[in-house]
């Protein structure tokens, strides 16, 4: 993009940001993101993502319901009334052929269609991803997750995207694709760069202008951005996640072999500095590379005390908004850090306030 267009784009961003987070007690963005490597539509969409929620632990469980919560129409209605963006994690890999072609199970795909279309019908922006391809990142399979021949792992991801992209090719631009949640472990650095480029190439024939999110390795942490090599494509947004300070957000999680001690509160100066550092790192990368970033996950596990978790939610939200970064809380209504309690049919206060007021 010509340099002359940059100041213009900056102004456009500032205007968009003012609307995106308007109507709440949100802080004003002081440093709009740089969009010199993407086009105007992508830039506008990145900023319009605003406040978001992950409908997590539902469609990315090995089978829906395995993790205690199913995606109900009531969640769609409520989430879209209060959040501008819904990130929809989906474990396609466990609902597709074990062979390289990864032919997607039609009944499962229809289930996802129904959710995507209901979200879009309510005006939401929707980020649809591939979530938890455990074998590809070298992790231990989850109960009910099947293994495939290692030689077809990468090809399956590419072929999944060919099918997903074709399936949703006619949906409005408010539907965004995200190639893979949190590459890490054996899928990092150059291996991920190469695979992401192949997956994107499988999307483009049917969706030449669909905005696609690609995140860096190391669980999408901003510290891994410097190793990310993006294909040249004006319809990209970069996905980042931060769970810093990790000892606070992941205290007591049951799936860690070495559970972190509970009882840690938030947020003192050192803890605040960690949040700020991660987001500043993302902004530095954004200024150098001109691709907008989106904070697709942050959250604090329910073993921490609620007041501290709300303070953390408020802190990250404010710091993201100050930088013009759209965000999505992890997650809606499950035991990681649900902002809604499906059993009581009620919001979890003060988490809701911290995110939405
Ligand atoms: C994973 C979740 C996990 C969360 C926090 C997400 O990316 O999909 O299973 O609870 O990160 O660790």
Architecture overview:
The protein has 357 residues and is an alpha/beta fold. Helix content is 37%, strand content 11%. It contains eleven helices and ten strands. The protein has helices spanning 5-20, 40-48, 73-82, 106-121, 153-167, 189-203, 217-220, 246-249, 269-289, 306-322, 351-356, and strands spanning 51-54, 85-88, 125-129, 175-178, 212-214, 236-241, 293-297, 326-329, 340-341, 346-347. The strands form two sheets. It has an eight-stranded parallel β-barrel with strand order 1-2-3-4-5-6-7-8, surrounded by four helices. A two-stranded antiparallel sheet has the order 9-10. Strand 2, helix 4 and strand 3 (125-129) form a beta-alpha-beta unit. Helix 5 packs parallel to helix 6 (189-203) and helix 9 packs parallel to helix 10. The longest helix is centred in the C-terminal third of the chain and has 21 residues, at 269-289. It binds beta-D-glucopyranose. Beta-D-glucopyranose is lined by residues 131, 181-182, 297, 330, 336.
Index terms:
single chain; 357 residues; alpha/beta; 8-stranded parallel barrel; two-stranded antiparallel ribbon; 11 helices; 11% strand; disordered N terminus; binds beta-D-glucopyranose
Instruction: Report the principal-axis shape.
Output: globular
Bound molecules: beta-D-glucopyranose
Strands of the biggest beta sheet: in what spatial order?
1-2-3-4-5-6-7-8
Share of helical residues: 25-40%
- The overall pLDDT, averaged over residues, is 93
Query: Taking Cα atoms only, what radius of gyration do you get, to the nearest Å?
Result: 19 Å
- Beta strands, count: 10
């Amino acid at each position: 993009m010509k340099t002359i267009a940059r100041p213009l784009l900056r102004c456009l961003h500032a205007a968009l940001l003012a609307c995106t987070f308007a109507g709440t007690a949100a802080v004003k963005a002081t440093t709009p993101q740089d969009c010199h490597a993407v086009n105007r539509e992508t830039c506008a969409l990145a900023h319009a993502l605003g406040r978001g929620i992950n409908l997590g632990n539902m469609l990315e469980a090995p089978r829906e319901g395995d993790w205690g919560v199913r995606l109900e129409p009531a969640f769609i209605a409520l989430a879209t009334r209060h959040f501008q963006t819904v990130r929809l994690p989906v474990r396609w890999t466990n609902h597709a052929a074990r062979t390289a072609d990864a032919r997607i199970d039609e009944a499962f795909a229809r289930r996802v269609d129904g959710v995507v279309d209901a979200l879009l019908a309510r005006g939401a922006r929707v980020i649809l991803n591939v979530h938890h391809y455990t074998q590809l990142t070298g992790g231990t399979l989850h109960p009910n997750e099947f293994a495939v021949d290692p030689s077809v792992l990468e090809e399956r991801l590419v072929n999944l995207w060919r099918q997903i992209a074709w399936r949703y090719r006619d949906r409005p631009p408010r539907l965004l694709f995200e190639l893979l949640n949190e590459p890490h472990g054996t899928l990092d650095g150059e291996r991920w760069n190469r695979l992401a480029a192949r997956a994107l190439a499988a999307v483009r024939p049917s969706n030449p202008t669909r905005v696609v999110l690609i995140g860096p390795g190391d669980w999408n942490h901003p510290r891994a951005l410097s190793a990310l090599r993006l294909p040249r494509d004006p319809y990209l947004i970069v996905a980042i996640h931060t769970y810093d300070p990790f000892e606070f957000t992941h205290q007591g999680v049951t799936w860690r072999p070495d559970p972190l001690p509970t009882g840690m509160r938030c947020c003192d100066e050192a803890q605040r500095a960690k949040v700020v550092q991660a987001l500043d790192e993302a902004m530095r990368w954004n200024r150098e590379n001109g691709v907008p970033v989106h904070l697709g996950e942050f959250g604090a596990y329910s073993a921490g005390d609620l007041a501290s978790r709300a303070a953390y939610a408020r802190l990250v939200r404010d710091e993201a908004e100050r930088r013009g970064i759209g965000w999505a809380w992890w997650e809606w209504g499950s035991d990681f850090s649900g902002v809604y309690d499906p059993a009581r049919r009620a919001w979890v206060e003060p988490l809701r306030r911290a995110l939405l007021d």
